[in-house]
Every structure is written in C-alpha cells, then in structure tokens.
Design goal:
5 helices; globular; outer membrane lipoprotein receptor (LolB), chain A; alpha+beta
Length: about 240
C-alpha cells in the first residue's frame, strides 16, 4: 500500500517539478548588505527574473525601522537585445508615505505613467535597472565612456560609466577581482517631472551632487555587481554583496 502511494505521489510530483523549474529556474538573486557610514541599516536584493526582467528590493533593518522604516521594490522589463524600456513598476513605503506607479511603453517612444501621464523618450532609452543589466553583460570596451539615454520617474538623463581601475574587493575574506566604474548622470529635461517626491534611495542616487561608484565582477559570463556606493556629503551609502 505504501509503495503504491509513493508511486502515485511521484507520478504527480514530476510534472509539478517540471512546472516549478520552468517558472523559477531562471531566477538569479544577488543579496546585499546596506550600510551608511559602514553602519548596517538594511538589506537589498537584485533579482534577475528572466532574460528581460529584473527587480531591485531594499528594506531597512529592525533598528532603523524604529526610526525611519523603508521598504521599496523597483521592477523593470526591457528589450533583451538593446536593454530599452518596456515597462517599469515601483512600490515603496517610507515611514508613513507610499508611492506606487506603473509605466508602460504604449507606442515606439511614448512611456505612459499610471495610464495618464506621458513621457516622450529619446531613442534607445534605458531604465536604471536595465542599465545595470547592460553593465553586467558588457565588456569594458563596450561600456567605458559611452553615453546612454536613461529615464527615471519622468526625468530624462544621459548616463555613462567611466572605468577607474581593476581592483580586488574582499567579501567574507574572499578576494573578487572587479572592474571599478564611476557612473555619471547628466539631466537633460525635467519639465515633464510628474512626481513631487520620491523615495530616499532614488533621491540620493539621482541627486546631481552624488558620486556613484560600482564594482563589477571580472572574467565571468554574466558579471555580478559586487558593490555600489553613493556619496553625497555627509551621506555615504553602500550596498555590498553578501557572498
């Protein structure tokens, strides 16, 4: 009897496992420690959901939750061939304030926020998350000093990575060889800005006075982002991969 039950359960289990693998087998997750002035304040995650979908999540830890709780999620769907925007979503809770939106490209160069506000995109415009994917999938020669169009919450930018050096980043006593870049942002037009305020991370990242640095794993088929730092006096925010 037990043998028959196991046989029946196995018979039903195999298709379920196949469905699970098909649905979730492509998910790749990178987890990060978040710190301000090297003091732990939370955790973050970059999740490659598919070859054209990515999400970024950040949450404050229990200590910060008593003072200023933050929980955010960005999502981006993009053209896997050129990394241009197809869809962006955002859900954030910051203390008692919330911000949620969905932005979808309805025609060739028109991005529509919440089915009402429209932004005219320049050709080949990326989102912040698809820019990260492009960085991870590009060689040094293909990415260094090149300008890329970028849209963020209704504001248009030009962005470029400038290679600083190749260096070793120590993670849990393990050295990871990385290409070290600075990310420059140049605002092109904010006349169509549709949001009065944003979340803390987004505000800090896109502040024109911020210095953004990224360390990307070298010599890998798909290079991981190992570390991100954002400096804006007196704030020094860092995201460091856990393993």
């Amino acid at each position: 009897m037990i043998y028959k039950m196991l046989k029946i359960n196995t018979h039903h289990l195999v298709p379920s496992l196949i469905v699970f693998i098909l649905l979730f087998g492509n998910i790749k997750s990178q987890e990060y420690d978040v710190a301000i002035w090297n003091i732990p304040v939370g955790s973050a995650e970059i999740q490659l959901i598919a070859d054209n979908e990515i999400s970024f999540k950040l949450k404050s830890n229990e200590f910060i939750d008593y003072i200023f709780p933050i929980e955010l999620e960005y999502y981006s769907k993009f053209d896997k061939n050129n990394y241009t925007i197809i869809e962006n979503k955002k859900t954030t809770t910051q203390k008692t304030e919330e911000q949620n939106f969905e932005a979808v490209v309805k025609s060739k160069n028109i991005l529509v926020y919440n089915e009402q506000d429209t932004i005219t995109l320049d050709p080949n415009t990326l989102s912040l998350l698809s820019l990260f994917i492009k960085l991870m999938n590009s060689s040094l020669d293909d990415i260094d000093t090149k300008w890329f169009n970028l849209e963020n919450e209704g504001i248009l930018y030009e962005s470029r990575f400038l290679w600083n050096d190749t260096t070793t980043v120590s993670i849990n006593s393990k050295g990871i060889l990385c290409d070290h870049y600075r990310l420059d942002l140049k605002m092109l037009d904010d006349s169509d800005n549709i949001f009065d305020k944003t979340d803390y991370f987004n505000e800090l990242f896109f502040d024109i006075n911020s210095i953004r640095q990224i360390w990307v794993e070298k010599w890998q088929k798909q290079q991981r982002i190992i570390k991100i730092t954002i400096k804006n006096n007196p704030i020094n925010l860092s995201l460091t991969i856990k393993n």
